[in-house]
Amino acid sequence: MARSEPDEVSAPGEMRVFWFLLLTMVVVVTAVTLAVVGGGGSAVLRDVPPERFIDPLPATRPVGRADVEALRLPMAPRGYRMADVDEALSRLGAELAERDARIAELESSLAGAQAAALTKSTDLFEQPGDRPAGPGDQQTGGPGRTEEDGR
Q1: How far apart (Å, rounded) are the C-alpha atoms in residues 132 and 123?
Q2: 23 Ramachandran zone, left/alpha/beta (phi>0; psi -120 to 50)
Q3: Is the pLDDT assigned to residue 37 strictly greater than 90?
Q4: Is the pTM of this model over 0.70?
Q5: What is the mean pLDDT of the chain?
Q6: 80 has pLDDT over 90
Q7: What is the 8-class DSSP label of residue 100?
Q8: CA-to-CA dists, residue 88 to 27, 57, 71, 80, 85, angstroms
Q9: DSSP for 79-145?
Q10: Coil, strand or helix: which one is 37?
Q11: pLDDT tens profile 120-145
């Protein structure tokens, strides 16, 4: 089978359209790239200042559980900012040390009060005027009576 029509070479008009579209595409890509990067004096994407740690931990009262749960540290390119984390952890460590000291103080005062209560023998059923006679107490017959009266 023989070919009846020879291969057609693209017309000169089609080549112009190809080059026009190629040039237009290069111009559009360049314009978008410059706009995104910020070339040409326009600040489309401005540099964002780095996040700084604003201490949400209260300075006027002790830190509570809700304060720790609400604590959000700013992110850095490779995790958290070490200075901000160190600051928050040192604040929490100081609060815990203060609470531990207060707990120890209260426990020692409670132990002292319990020891004093154990040394002092108190009877829950004793009436306010009743008191057992001690070794130095004199046994008398009643109020206003002495030993001489009893003879």
Answers
A1: 10
A2: alpha
A3: no
A4: no
A5: 76
A6: no
A7: H
A8: 51, 8, 9, 12, 5
A9: EE-HHHHHHHHHHHHHHHHHHHHHHHHHHHHHHHHHHHHHHS---TT--TT-----TT----SSTT-
A10: helix
A11: 755 556 666 665 555 555 555 555 55
